[in-house]
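Posting for a labmate who doesn't have an account.
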Amino acid sequence: MNNVDSGKTPSWWVSLIPFAVLVAVLVLVIKAFAADALAGGSQVALMFAAGVTVAIAMVFYNIPWKTLEDAMVDNIKSVGTSVIILLLIGAVAGSWMISGVVPTLIYYGMKVILPGIFLFASCVISALIAIMTGSSWTTIATIGVALVGIGTAQGYDPGWTAGAIISGAYFGDKVSPLSDTTVLASSSAGTSLFSHIRFMMITTVPSFAVTLIIFLVASILHQIPDVAETVDFSADLASKFNISPWLLLVPVLTGLLIMKKVPAIITLFAASVIAGLFAFIFQPHVISEIAVGAVDADADFTFIEGFKGLMQSYYGATAIQTGNPDVDSLIATRGMTGMLNTVFLIIAASTFGGSLVGSGMLQSLTDALVGFVRRRTSMVAATVGTGIFANMITGDQYLSIILTSNLYKKLYKERGYESKLLSRSVEDSATVVSVLIPWNSCGMTQATVLKVPTMSYLPYCFFNLLSPVMSIFIAMVGYKIKRKEKPISDKE
């Protein structure tokens, strides 16, 4: 007999046990492994918490293993596309670096973007590109990497730079009609796409405006480094790579593919292949160095060496010596293998999330939360809280968007509120907060791509931090929020 047949489901307090176990194990993992906690320890903690969930469900509630297994497998299946995209992002990061694309963007960017407005400009540039491409991940993995390099050369803390990039990228992603998360949020809540985007502007624009002001002030107050240091940084890049405007064709062609709405997997694959071809043309000495481990100026470049170096940049770690430790650290890449911890994390988080869904624990917790919903503000706050909570337990923003929308769709309809209020509340939480959670696929991915730990950039992702708060504040004010009918019991 399962929980559905018996009508017996775990209570909300029982449903909290796996989370208590997860927190306890994570505390031990962080204490034992410190900065290396996400290299495997956190993933094991998630699997252990999933095991506790399964044990409680099977032993005390007679839930069949098949029910739990199906829920976990469905969760893992739903993130399959994200895993492929992650591996391709690793390939793009490696190939764009050794081909000289990213070094060229850094080289010219340092000449164009003034240090006195750098954070502000980085946020705006990331936002514009994300609006045009509809992808925060692609924006961060391409121009974001270059901006981190420019920021490092101009003396900015990587956490501040990453925060500006991520804030801009997620703003652009939210308001772009090309964004998959925007389409998913609107469709899951039953709202038309453009109606959803227009309504979202009410919370998104103020949050982004405050974010830009903060970054502008921080940029103005930034102590500009010695010009000689910046010149040395550029010189070290130029001494190792053949810097050429022709290399800018790679991001331009990638942008065209995105604008044509070519699927992300195809676009990223094409971007890595094109970069690989440019590496053979412009940087044969670099890929040869990667292949043999040293540079011999008198040695002839061979195709096999070049092929080996290129393949290594796609799948493995690359270390290129320039004589400047800061530059060496910036241009080092890990390719697809650098994404394996993230893939492991996604699978572990999806397993834990699936066990919660299959056991009915997630529904019990949500029902308990909904029980406290009395007014408009508390309803939006509950939605926002659930979106954040879902990101923490499922480890994936797509699952969080779908899950939160499905849980609250009936409630919003019964209370007479328009579906676009639900879709906006979901976007203001499930979408933007995902990147702030270290074990979430978004948080792990951006930390890996930008080489900045999640907890280092989290305090500076002002847009992502302000959005949930702004959503609740606007709900409290009631601006532009309409109802089809008002229940007598609701005294707002």
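Reply:
Got it, the structure tokens are right above this. Residues 193-221 form the longest helix (29 residues).
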